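Postdoc handover notes: sequence design on the structure in folder B. Input tokens:
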């Protein structure tokens, strides 16, 4: 038995090839697993559990079939889908997992996060994150109509594209000191995250963290899965 990790699938109604590959993964490889961890940005954007988009409904039904089959499924908020809430959990049988959770993985203490908190050089993003995750903001967002939330999300995507095109790519990667601090505070030697779309296994000694940092890839052009069992772990690219 093994435990699987994915992130940054960015499911949306306009790229059915991503949806089909992910649904195939849920019906196939994921069914053989003990647990599936989705570490943020399962959806391209999630404007609330009341979004009636049929693609999103189909995906929720497949997640329900997975959890009904006995596979535990944990979902973490990403920067695109931090409004995933209790109704989503009820419909899918998934459990929301807090950013920065530590789990015991076959005897190892492993820290899990989406990865955006580690990009501390991206000051504009960190400011946006603080505002969006503030309980007051979340309260206001939840009372807006679907149309208003959709318009806001579109505007944010537009502004974000401008920002990411103008910002040097190193600024949008993790800050090594932030990684070290994060791992030290959690007292772990292992960290798994996504967000940066730079899949890699950074071994101890590569940087100053003293531990291993595994970065999951995005699903824009292929799938990316980390398969972890008692025998070891492997970061796998799934061709499309
Ligand atoms: O996502 P990605 O990788 O492209 O870029 C991220 C950072 N950007 C974001 C913003 C999201 O992409 C926007 C989509 C969110 C949808 C959520 C919908 C639900 C909420 C709204 C409706 C209820 O996360 C980007 C980072 C990059 O990662 C790498 O780390 O650089 O950060 C930025 O782009 C920072 C910019 O400063 C963002 C500017 C957004 C400005 C929003 C203005 C809103 C105006 C509203 C007017 C009323």
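Designed sequence:
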């Amino acid at each position: 038995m093994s435990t699987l990790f994915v992130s940054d699938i960015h499911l949306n109604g306009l790229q059915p090839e991503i949806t089909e590959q992910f649904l195939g993964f849920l019906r196939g490889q994921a069914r053989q697993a003990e647990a599936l961890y989705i570490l943020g940005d399962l959806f391209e954007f999630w404007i609330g559990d009341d979004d009636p988009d049929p693609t999103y409904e189909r995906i929720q039904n497949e997640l329900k079939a997975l959890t009904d089959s006995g596979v535990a499924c944990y979902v973490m908020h990403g920067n695109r889908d931090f409004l995933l809430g209790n109704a989503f959990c009820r419909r899918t049988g998934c459990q929301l997992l807090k950013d920065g959770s530590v789990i015991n993985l076959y005897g190892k203490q492993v820290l899990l996060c989406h990865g955006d908190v580690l990009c501390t050089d991206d000051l504009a993003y960190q400011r946006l994150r603080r505002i969006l995750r503030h309980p007051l903001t979340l309260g206001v967002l939840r009372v807006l109509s679907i149309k208003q939330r959709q318009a806001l999300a579109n505007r944010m995507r537009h502004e974000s594209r401008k920002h990411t095109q103008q910002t040097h790519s190193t600024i949008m990667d993790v800050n090594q000191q932030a990684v070290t601090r994060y791992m030290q505070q959690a007292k772990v030697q292992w960290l798994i995250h996504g967000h940066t779309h730079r899949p890699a296994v950074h071994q101890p000694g590569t940087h100053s963290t003293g531990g291993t940092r595994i970065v999951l890839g995005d699903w824009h052009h292929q799938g990316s899965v980390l398969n972890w069992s008692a025998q070891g772990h492997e970061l796998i690219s799934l061709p499309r």
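Context for whoever picks this up: The first helix runs from residue 16 to 27. Don't rerun without checking with the PI first.
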